[in-house]
Amino acid sequence: MSANANEQIPSLDSFPETGTPKHAKLGGYEFYKSIGSPQRIVAPMVDQSELAWRVLSRRYGSQLVYTPMINAKVYVQQNKGAHRVREAYFNQALKEEGAHTLDLGHLSDTDRPLVVQFCANDPTQLLEAAQSVQDKCDAIDLNLGCPQQIAKRGNFGAFLQEDWHLIFSLINTLHRELKIPVTAKFRVYESLEKTLAYAKMIERAGAQMVTVHGRTREMKGHKTGLADWAKIRAVKEALSIPVFANGNMLFPQDWRDALAYTGCDGVMSAEGNLYNPTLFQDMATDLASLSKQDGDHSGFDALRITRIANEYLDIVKALRTPTSSSALKGHMFKITRPALAIHTDLRPVLGKARSNEEAAGEERVAEYRAFVQELERRLVEDEKRAEYYESQGAPRYYVTPQHLQDSEDRSTRPEYIPHWYLQPYFRPPLNPPKEKGGTGQPAQGAAAEPATTQTGTSEVPKEAPASGVSTHALAADVPAAEPPAKRAKAPLATRVEEANTLKTLGNDQFGKKNYAVAITHYTDAIARLPPRIADDDEDEEDEGARRTVSLDEHLLFEEIGQLRVKLYANLAASHLKLVRAMLMQDQFDATIQASNEVLQEEPKNVKALHRRAVAHEKLGGWAHLNEALKDLKQLEALDQEGYVPTAFGPELKASIERVSRLVEAAGEQEKSEMLGKLKTLGNNVLGYFGLSTDNFQLSQQEGGGYSLNFVR
Predict the structure, then answer these.
(1) Which is catalytic among the residues 119, 137, 146, 264?
(2) How far is CA 285 from CA 253, 388, 677, in A?
(3) What's this model's pTM, rounded to 2 decimal places?
(4) Residue 271: which residues within 8 A CB-CB, separation 6 or more?
(5) 119 is catalytic
(6) In the beta sheet, which residues pair with residue 698?
(7) pLDDT value at position 477?
(8) What is the SS3 assignment for 570-607?
């Protein structure tokens, strides 16, 4: 939501008074001091700031940690499987989440101080959810910063910026009713004036601490750009409560500079913490010495990838609270990212690793441990090789933030760190500037700036066309069809952007019921993406032909995987719609194929399972109907886990009953047809001997088998 000269900013006086809480509790700086005056804070991260990661982060300097965002609406549901869903969000039964002391063999292990974050758009639901966990944490945080599409569809996070009075009501309800303080995390506006008015409204609503993410709602993905510390400083100066700064925390020196420049009470790290959970640890500061083979590296043991990976696995196995498989795999990929950019053959090994949440101890993480052991064996050898103490030629998309104390100091922000150490991830821009000579790669250490437009005191990336823009206008941005070989040479990030644009075109045509055209766009988008990384081991003769994956490409593959799932899901939906609209039976096979692609990436994708079941049922025959029944039974199992929407329950039950009858009938029909064909064949053969199949009697025995008896 952009501010302009004609846009009216709500007056602070248009909001009610803060009011007095029902329960006596600390607020503002008194509360901040009661939890230890934390300066180094780990952000709420969906499926990433889970208990095991919080424990690891605290061991390495984090003083306050937030839970992953919890959807209040889902959390308070009372339907079948709701308890399991709530425990997956925040496990209270095992009494480890929010515990003051954790018995993990480490003296300082704790899950406090802890802030539980919720997203919501209904004050009643938010209050009910918050009250259920208020005895297990120190504060409740309202998410006002999530910029993703799921937040737009659900009307929460940063998309509440259009409704300040609703935000006031959400915060004020918690302030008045809870026994603990309420806090908020929000993004800035392009307008500084509006940002300050927004922050003051949040304070007036009753927030006792705030975190300011110095980016606008539109700044995400490859359009992330730099957080505006100047706006964060202005918010800090305008409020009377503790303020945390969020954004641009990649190196340890960054958070020190952020504290100095913004004057904030603390700094919060999200992505920086994921790639280096020791970001807040006090250790030797000369990071440039890591690339000197004969240097003293003893002060950097905590940065060793395999040490941190093993320690994280130790925590996962020691906790009784299960760590989700998606969280575990996500952390392992991010921790080991630099090493996997060199040892690319280990990526599918990690990709195939599975955790056993039901098992205890080492068995829970055995496959991941085996991966780390093999990686460590290789990294020990790599440390002996002189060439690995020099850059491997990968581009370094580091954009120097404004207001650094010493932006030229390479000891704290080195050009190169060997791949056996934890290090920040620099998100590549969509179209990296070319070096002279047209190589398409920036010089080592170059600061590749995203395309930006200047607005006031801060630079923000150019916005993508809004969803309401005509597809004719969007079509101008779609590259013309190219030969596959030429297309494959395009920069990876550019191909992702092209695929996203084609997906937008496909969605537009789907909405207009032009399903055949939508299929064309989705298919073209899939063709823009690189092939999925194979899980199977490659032949030995292919070893030398493998292309080394760059540091930037490595992280792009995660985004590409998510985009591929969406495209195939949309493709399956389009084929199914086309069948219903035009009775084109051959589209059922295409629906099944597209759904298979989705389920290969996301085995619990409810929509893909349902679409595949529908297609199999429509194709008919015992084999297809049996596959449909398998999918429906899997949906029934997912329903028990809370994955299936409540409204779909009756339809699912009816579908299982219907398809079960169809399977039985189809089986009998195919059996009858088979016996008829066999009888015809038998009569043809037996006719030469003056006999027929009528001379033989087929009788079923008690055990289920059959006997063949001759009858004259």
Answers:
(1) 146
(2) 8, 21, 82
(3) 0.67
(4) 425
(5) no
(6) 708
(7) 34
(8) HHHHHHHHHHHHHCCCCHHHHHHHHHHHHHHHCCCCHH
